[in-house]
Amino acid sequence: MGAVTLTGVRKLFGTMEVIKGIDLAIADRELVVFVGPSGCGKSTLLRMIAGLEDVDYGAIEIAGRDVTELAPALRGVAMVFQNYALYPHMTAYDNMAYGLRRAGLAGAEVDKRVRATAAMLQITELLPRRPKAMSGGQRQRVAIGRAIVRNPEVFMFDEPLSNLDAALRVEMRSQIARLHRELQATMIFVTHDQVEAMTLADRIVVLNGGRIEQVGTPREVYHRPANIFVAGFIGSPAMNLLPANLHRGAALELGWGTRVTWTAAVPALPDNAPVTLGVRPERVSLCDAARAQASGEVTLAEHLGDETILHLKVSDGVSLTVKAGGDVAALVGDRLHVAFDLAGACLFGPDGRRIAPD
Amino acid sequence: MTAVPAIERRRPAPGKLWQSLLYHAVMLTFAAIFLLPFYWMTISALKFNAEIFANPVSWWPDPVRWENLAQLFMRDDFPFLRQFMNSVFYAGSVAIAVVLSCSLAAYAFGCLRWRGRNLVFALTICALLMPTIVTFLPVYLAWSRLGLVGSYWPLIFPFLLGDAFFIFMLRQFFLGVPRELMDAARLDGASEFRIWWQIVLPQVRTALVIVGLFAIVYTWNEFFGPLIYLQNREDMPLSLGLFTFQSQRATEWSISMAGSFFTAMPMVLLFLLTQRLFQQGLTTSGLK
Ligand SMILES: Nc1ncnc2c1ncn2[C@@H]1O[C@H](COP(=O)(O)OP(=O)(O)OP(=O)(O)O)[C@@H](O)[C@H]1O
Ligand SMILES: [Mg+2]
Q1: Ligand 2 centroid to residue A44 C-alpha, Å
Q2: Domain of A76?
Q3: Are residues A52 and B187, on separate chains, in Cβ contact within 8 Å?
Q4: Of A230, A253, A288, the domain-final residue
Q5: Residues A75 and A143 grouped into a single domain
Q6: Is the dihedral angle over the CA atoms A162, A163, A168, A174 positive or is it negative?
Q7: Do both A216 and A249 map to the same domain?
Q8: B199/A87 CB distance under 8 A
């Protein structure tokens, strides 16, 4: 049905290559989330799949059909835009009916489908209203309705929730998850929001500078980041990436001189090889001076209620983020000692790729 | 509803009152200065020819000669009504032609991406720098060869091909239409022509009306084109007809003034009726 396959897809704006060769297979009924820093090409890639941008090299297949040269409306895709992009001069009803009418459906059939979709999204009372007379959340629902009513094989969302307030965002997030279950359709979702990505995705695609850094389930990209970029990008607060040297005999010498034991298997590397140790902030714990593996001065203390995020300056150019309990009363300027729990830690080789755990 | 009485809160401070009085006095003086010629035209239309040049100046016609107006519509050496309708036709056609052709061009320049777009747009803008008088002769010869001199074709048809100034102006408005609207319509299966007509034009309605009004005012006062291409008195628009009448019947001032009054009136009314829209067009972008 709605599988999407990209092969060697590239895009140039003028001489600037924005998408630099993407190979990606999205399974039917999968919900895939694109994440990546601003300007990495998420929107461009999405628009290429939708047919709104030309593909310069490579091919795109949807449902087993090569759609690289096909007009957007013929691809069986629908898109929800960040700013909703509802037609301002039409009522919600006409917004939803527009695509159906273009497809040549009869009036009665259009009416039936619009009303059924509106009922499903609980927006029936919005149908006679224009976008101007709706709140952001209501516009969002109508925009989703406009996408659903056409019954596409692939849904695309380009940061659809970023204009909503926090509470509404949580609600819409669960609604999109529910829609995904009920519609049994393929969905591609672009977001900046870590929580959205982790909670919604079957698989996350991490993009950077027009390339794919990693494709994997939320657990995979979180616990087994393919490289330093993914490690630093996924998770908030970000993973601690500490310079270290790996000695034979499984001794890891951290940048500031401390030695720790690395027990997991690592591929053969030259002695004293420069590596990077990745430790999540929740795997760093406060301890007393005797057991300390690192010590530093607090440069920033964020008291979030249930937890406290502490930023420590360990040595020149090395800082550590620690996720501690909400009862920790540390203040800026305090000197704290920490120890690492290396059970869930990652080790990255000189080229930035993860070498352990494999 | 608050309990504070509105009157009490709105009473201006004494200093403010003087300021406001002064402001209005100045504005009224200027308004009077600008209205004076219009007033003079109006009363002259209702005077005897002799009274117009009377000394001392007579500020109110005595007697009021309504017959002048009746004459205006009955003289056979000045087909006023016919020329008035010519002007309406001329201005209306140009306005429609300009709005259609320039909004199509502005859509292509502002909303579509194609190779060479910026170059073509730059060339279009260069057309603004070219005085009409330069291209005038070859254009006249072409129309003459086509045997269309003496008709309205040479005056209206060029506007169906767009006008650089209005294209430029409309493009600015079209650039303000969110790209996602057109993308959404493309995904909905609308053709480019339909997107232009059903999605984009409704967003820039105010701009279209403004361009239409500009075109009407411009055409209503246009003199040179009709002078060159039209010879028959029955074919002339008012701008030219009035001039022709004045140059032939130099002494009949009250009739000319009556003609001028009815020539100026439609534009005054048009402005009064659309004033609010002009302001709206300037304050809101017509979006959101
Ligand atoms: N029409 C265009 N012409 C030229 N360059 C463009 C165009 N559209 C996008 N780009 C460039 O392509 C790159 C990728 O843009 P894109 O919008 O896909 O990023 P993004 O990942 O969606 O970013 P964000 O998270 O901020 O939305 C950017 O560097 C952008 O400047
Ligand atoms: Mg984007």
Answers
A1: 7
A2: 4-230
A3: yes
A4: A230
A5: yes
A6: negative
A7: no
A8: yes
Ligand 1 touching residue A18 (CB < 6 A): yes
pLDDT single digits (tens) B211-267: 898 899 899 999 999 999 998 888 999 989 888 888 887 777 888 888 888 888 888
Which ligand is closest to the CA of A207, given by its number? 1
> Are A79 and B184 an interchain contact pair (Cβ–Cβ within 8 Å)?
yes
How far apart are the CA of B257 and the centre of ligand 1, in A? 63
CA-based nearest distance A92→chain B, Å:
14
Check if the beta carbon of residue A339 is closer than 8 Å to that of residue A287.
yes
Q: Is the ipTM of this complex over 0.95?
A: no
Contact A248, A57 (CB under 8 A): no
Ligand closest to A193 (CA) is 1
- Picking from A275, A320, A282, A327, the residue whose alpha carbon sits closest to that of residue A305 is A327
Ligand 1 near A13 CB (within 6 A): yes
Instruction: Say whether both A123 and A26 belong to one domain.
Output: yes
Domains of chain B are: 17-65 (no CATH), 76-287 (1.10.3720.10)
Low-confidence ranges of chain A (pLDDT < 50): none
pLDDT at B7 over 60: no
Give the tokens for residue A322.
């620690």
pLDDT in tens, A9-59: 999 998 999 999 999 999 999 999 999 999 999 999 999 999 999 999 999
Chain centre to alpha carbon of residue B90: 12
C-alpha closest to that of A355 among A260, A269, A254: A269
Please check whether residue A34 is in contact with residue A60, taking contact to mean a CB–CB distance below 8 angstroms.
no
Looking at A215, A230, A245, the residue that finishes a domain is A230
**pLDDT at residue B283 is higher than 60:** no
pLDDT value of residue B284: 43
**Same-domain pairing of A105 and A244:** no
Same domain, A248 and A267: yes
Average pLDDT of B277-281?
Answer: 64
Task: Nearest by CB to B187, from A73, A83, A132: name it.
Answer: A73
CB A192 within 8 A of CB A224: no
Place of tokens 């909004």: B103
Task: Provide the pLDDT confidence category of residue B278 given band limits of 50, 70 and 90.
Answer: low
Does A140 lie in the same domain as A266? no
Q: What is the CATH number of the domain that holds A342?
A: 2.40.50.140
Are both A267 and A223 inside the same structural domain?
no
Secondary structure of residue B33 in the 3-state scheme = helix
User: What are the residues facing A346 on neighbouring strands?
Assistant: A278
Q: What is the mean pLDDT of chain B?
A: 85
A289 vs B6, more confident: A289
CATH number at residue A78: 3.40.50.300
- Structurally, chain A folds into a number of domains equal to 2
* A130 and A8 co-located in one domain: yes
